[in-house]
Amino acid sequence: MKKRTPVSTIMTAEVITLNHTDSLETAESLFKSNNIRHIPVVSGDAIIGMLSYTDLLRISFADAADEDDTNVETIVYNMFTIEQVMAKNLVSITSDTLIKEAAEILAKKEFHALPVVDDGKLVGILTTTDLINYLLDQF
């Protein structure tokens, strides 16, 4: 296993993002159509938050427990904005951060994705799945 490998070699560089003004329905559609679990939220070129599929599930289950309507998610999603639901206190890494360092961050924190930011610009995303696939490739 290479010990000094940067995350740029395993991160997802073609990042799907949400604008902070997008709807939660748009977010759900992106999660499902791209089979992903984390989407950085941007305002212009700046990343301002991270939305996870778990965040969406949390609000739809919490607020819809007593509803009988088949469109519960639409009703609940209209009650919130992306900015209200997303994680705001982000930990980010740069593309030259070593894979080992990124793995240590993810092992200690309660999230599963790190935005990769160079010079204030979002250039990728690194997830626990990327790390697991990297480890599997080593065997």
Radius of gyration: 16 Å
Please name the CATH architecture.
Roll
CATH homologous superfamily caption? CBS-domain
How would you state the average pLDDT, rounded? 88
Looking across the biggest beta sheet, what order are the strands in?
Answer: 1-2-3
CATH class: Alpha Beta
What would you call the structural class? alpha+beta
- Assembly type: single chain
Which percent range describes the beta-strand content? 15-25%
Given the C-alpha coordinates, what overall shape results? globular
Portion of residues within helices: 25-40%
Which series of helices and strands comes N to C?
Answer: EHEEHHHHEEH
How many structural domains are formed by the residues? 1
> CATH topology, what is it called?
CBS-domain
Give unreliable regions as ranges.
Answer: 63-70
Number of strands: 5
What distance separates the N and C termini? 9 Å
Main β-sheet description: 3 strands, mixed
Number of helices: 6
Protein name: Inosine-5'-monophosphate dehydrogenase
Pfam family, one: CBS
EC number: 1.1.1.205
Enzyme class: oxidoreductase
